[in-house]
Amino acid sequence: MNALLLDRIHFAFTVTYHYLFPQLTMGLALLMVIMKLIALRSGDERWNQAARFWAKIFAINFLLGVVTGIPMEFQFGTNWSEFARRTGGVIGQPLAMEGVFAFFLESTFLGLFLFGEKRLSKLAHFGAATMVFVGSWISGFFIIVTDAWMQHPVAQRLLPNGTYEVASFWKFMLNPWAWLQYAHNMCGAVVTASFVVAATGAFYLLEKSHQEFGRLFLKTGVIAGLISCVVQIFPTGDFHGRYVARYQPAAIAGMEGLFRSQKGAPVVLIGQPDENAQTIDNPLAVNDVLSFILYGTTHAEVKGLDAFPRDQWPTALPLLYYSYHIMAGLGTWFVLLMLVAAFLLWRGKLYNARWMLWPILLSFPLPYVANTAGWMTAEIGRQPWLVYGLIRTSEGYSPHVSAGNALFTLLGFLGMYSVLSILWIVLVYRFIRTGPAAAAVAIPAEPQPATLTTV
Amino acid sequence: MGFVWFWIVAVMIAAYVVLDGFDLGVGILSPFLARSDNDRRTLIRSIGPVWDGNEVWLLAGGGTLYFAFPLLYASSFSGFYLPLMIVLWLLIMRGASIELRMHIDHNVWRSFFDGLFFVASALLTIFFGAALANVIRGVPLGQDSYFFLPLWTNWRVGANPGILDWYTVIGGVVALVALATHGALWIVLKAPGQLEDRARRAVTALWIALLLITLISLPATIAVRPSALANYRAYPILFVIPALVVATLVGILSFTKQNKPLAAFLSSCLYLVFMLVGAAAGLYPTLLPSSTDPARDITIAGALAGPHSLHVGLIWWSIGLVLALAYFIASYWLFRGKVTADAGYGH
To answer: What was the pLDDT predicted at B341?
Structure first.
């Protein structure tokens, strides 16, 4: 294995693992604000208890998001130094802004939110929850602006020393790609949180414990889940997909497994791409649909991979194809599941429908898979470019960091994150076992808090 | 513009050292000062609500460095590859140890995280000190402004140095003693009863070590990098900085003796700031000196990002810093005063 491949795996692994945590905390932050708002408006104490319960799970995930996030900012320099040198004048900006505007805000208000319930008024405590939400969503925005520039570089200027700088700050921040991707991504985070909340509710109902909260969580999760799943596909996914088709046609061809350009292009639902023969094996396809989705008419021509020189094909073609299909397939399953669940909820039958509670419980890992697959689609689709059309991936890695050193640290991260995963499972399981009823008495009685995650 | 951003980055690094410094120091001292589980809990509590915010200065500082001096970021982060990765692992372990210790009431679980908290805090401090010493000593920059340093070679500061050599180890020890002192002063300020008394006695012992290691580090620096004095010769007013270092050192001890813990802690903050400012003043306008050929030094002019980015950056950075200061003042005000010995916390 050469250094380039190892550096790619290094970043892919650490960022994929990292994003398991923010996708839950960003979504949960919104749901907690909603719970606090309902409590504030209705005076129903159960919603405060629910918010308190989820705040504990939020805190532990936030901690893991923080500690696994720190390596991300450093890895641009450690493993991708040529990329960092040439583009620091552009993407250094949102990364620095994330620290200055989002992290300070989050770390302060998280402390207030977790410990301040007794010291603050109800309204101020709701305000603290809102600030945690705002901070985490600002953080997400700056990361998406960074990635969007790599996907669709705008507003940059090449300096005589071969590096890039931002020519227009506002054009850079208002990159349309960034806003479409942001909407799609944040909606995906809400899907993850909704499914986790709904699955916890389903678990309590199946278990016949904490049933009052089980119903509360299930209702919250299903309503938020249905809205976010639908918005995930339309308009956010749809608009984002069309934009990708306009600016990264080779990526779309790879995602869809479309080897030949054609009018009335089909959507392949299932099938295995064969890169050498340039065919899809065992295809299950629907004609004309791809043309319609991308261009609004069944006759439109969609460019296949044959329209692009081989050195501009996405490098990991089958993985790109599967990532996209897994994302889209799961997205469809989410809508179906949530539609049926919402119907049962409306008819007042959901809480006793065990046949429905089981799939809701078992589906909680799937949004994590779908979000990961979505990011893989975006980043593998961008290949072979590091910055689309400007810098190739093979030009960006650190020239003096040997493959041996990169492998050493990759193995180190694998080991360390395995341990973190075990700790995470143990602690989240304990929170769910203890249940939300304990949150009724858990407002810290002492005047001083302990740490960020222990109340 | 380069001058402004040099000092912005320096201020952020100094803020990190001063703020995260005391919670690192608490970690270094925890096995020596805490005699019971209650003591250990009090120590964790004294930093519990603020440690994460303190660490944000490292991230914000790193981001600002990346933004303002991309070449320096690219060269130094890839060149210091191994120690940086070790620092990242230690940061992960340390964050986990602070936050996870309290979650399960079991003595083996807690002992494990207590040990981890100490080891990670001490090693991080040593690595940070050694890193700064590496920057002062210089690194073998190539024609392409890159380098790669192994963790150690022959422990000498020659043409083929490692991250660790006799000089950078001194840097690590300076950091260890300085932050242990800093942490002890924080504990005096925040902890009640016997813990406070033990911390006060630790300050006196650590102070002698700090005085000695500071006095060793100054001539060692001049021996390793004689050109560090060039700015001082050109602008003799700069000699005020080492004088202030000595003054703050005296302040730490005399305020502790007079039982003014806040003044003593602030003296320690200023001691750290002046040590860093002294180093920065010696380096300016170089960011990362070459150990082989001064022509290859990475300088402000060579590493500075484009002008438009930096102009815009100055606007948002000023706004962001005012907000950050407001959060910090509010947060430290809210959690002011002694940490109470707790009874029956729930989790």
So the answer is: 54
Assess contact for A32 and A133: CB atoms under 8 A: yes
Q: How far is B150 from chain A (nearest CA, A)?
A: 10
Question: pLDDT digits over A124-156, tens only?
Answer: 999 999 999 999 999 999 999 999 999 999 999
CB atoms within 10 A of CB B253: 18
Cα within 13 Å of Cα(B162), Cβ side: 14
**Distance (Å) of CA B85 to CA A411, B241, B320:** 12, 33, 28
From B61, B95, B309, residue closest to A63, measured CB to CB: B95
pLDDT at B343: 40
The tokens of A244 are what? 């990708």
Q: Is B129 helix (H, G, I), strand (E, B) or coil?
A: helix
If you search the block for the tokens 């380098």, which residue do you land on? Answer: B147
- Give the CA distances from residue A85 to residues A15, A146, B66, B166, B191, in Å, rounded to whole numbers and listed in that order: 20, 15, 9, 31, 46
The closest CB to that of A157, out of B306, B321, B334, belongs to B306
**What does the angle CA A133 – CA A139 – CA A145 come to, to the nearest 5 degrees?**
135
CA distance B335 to chain A (A): 7
Which residues, listed in sequence order, are joined to residue A274 by a DSSP beta bridge? A279
d(CA A338, CA A225): 7
What residues of chain A lie within 8 A of the CB of B322, using their CB? none
Subunit contact B85:A449, Cβ cutoff 8 A: no
CB atoms within 10 A of CB B59: 25
Is the CA virtual torsion A438, A439, A445, A446 positive or negative?
Answer: positive
Q: Kindly list the domain boundaries of chain A, sorted by start residue.
A: 3-243+322-440
CATH class as words, domain B2-305: mainly alpha
Minimum-distance CB partner of A89 among B49, B306, B323: B306
Residues whose CB falls within 8 Å of the CB of residue A293, separated by 6 or more in sequence, listed in order: A238, A241, A267
Q: Which residues are paired to A302 by β-bridges?
A: A262
ipTM reported for the complex, 2 dp = 0.92
B139 strand-pairing partners: B290
Average pLDDT in chain B: 91
Query: Which of A101, A106, A107 to mutate to test binding with chain B, by most B CBs within 10 Å of its CB?
Result: A107
pLDDT above 90: residue A327: yes
- For residue B347, pLDDT over 50 is answered with no
Put simply, the answer to whether B74 touches A119 (Cβ < 8 Å) is no
> What count of other Cβ atoms lies within 10 Å of the Cβ of residue A74?
21
Closest approach of chain B CAs to the CA of A36, in angstroms?
Answer: 21
DSSP string, A94-152: HHHHIIIIIIHHHHHHHHHHHHTTTTS-HHHHHHHHHHHHHHHHHHHHHHHHHHHHHHS
Total residue count of chain B as it appears in this document? 347
Model confidence band, residue A440 (pLDDT cutoffs 50, 70, 90): low
Q: Do B99 and A454 lie within an 8 Å CB cutoff?
A: yes
Nearest CA in chain B to A83: B74
At residue A442, does pLDDT exceed 70? no
Q: Is the peptide bond before B285 cis (omega within 30 degrees of 0)?
A: yes
Distance from CA of A391 to the nearest CA of B (A): 16
Element (H, E) at A263: strand A262-263
Instruction: Indicate the residue type of A328.
Output: A
A357 neighbors A205 (Cβ within 8 angstroms): yes
